[in-house]
Amino acid sequence: MKTKIVNFLFHWLPVIVWAAVIFKISNGKVPLASPVYWQDFAVKKFAHVTFFGFLAILIYRALRGEGMKRKKAAIWAVALTAFYGATDEFHQLFTQGREARVRDVGFDTIGAALAIYIVYQFFPKLPASIREILERMELI
């Protein structure tokens, strides 16, 4: 019993913590990154891609830790991240100073898909010493 709880926490606690970080960030007004519109837009959308890409990697790691096959874990990681992105935008409907955008869910999903593509396609092709570290982290 204790081993199952420790295993669950080892795999899913990072997912929960990172999802909470995203929630906290999206719970308030976001300052301008730049007075130039396109620069502000680029920084904020890069943040979406990065934050949700990292969430997808954590979900993928958790699913692999549960014994799910690579391909299935990759698909589920992208799907679950996209779903969380949609719920995050829904949450922003009720957050003062924020607005919900479907395009942000698109950027979240692009970030998830890109991150999982990198993990799925490129990590296994890295040098053996790096692959060993990634295997210990249960990423490949």
Description:
It is a single chain. This protein has 140 residues and is mainly α. It has one domain (2-136). It has helices spanning 2-25, 37-65, 70-92, 102-122, 128-136. Helix 2 crosses helix 3 (70-92). The longest helix has 29 residues, at 37-65. It is globular, with a radius of gyration of 16 Å. The two termini are 26 Å apart. The model has no long low-confidence stretch (mean pLDDT 92).
Arithmetic mean of pLDDT: 92
Q: Which term fits the overall shape?
A: globular
The termini sit apart by 26 Å
Instruction: Give the strand tally.
Output: 0
Give the count of structural domains: 1
Major beta-sheet overview: none
How many helical stretches? 5
Structural class: mainly alpha
**What is the string of SSEs from the N terminus onward?**
HHHHH
Tell me the helix content: over 70%
Low-confidence stretches: none
Which range does the strand content fall in?
under 5%
Kindly provide the radius of gyration, computed on alpha-carbon positions and rounded to a whole number of angstroms.
16 Å
Question: What would you say about this model in short?
Answer:
The protein has helices at 2-25, 37-65, 70-92, 102-122, 128-136.
Q: What's the arrangement of secondary structure elements?
A:
Blueprint: H1 2-25, H2 37-65, H3 70-92, H4 102-122, H5 128-136
Helix pairs in contact: 1-2, 2-3, 2-4, 3-4
Q: What keywords describe this structure?
A:
140 residues; mainly alpha
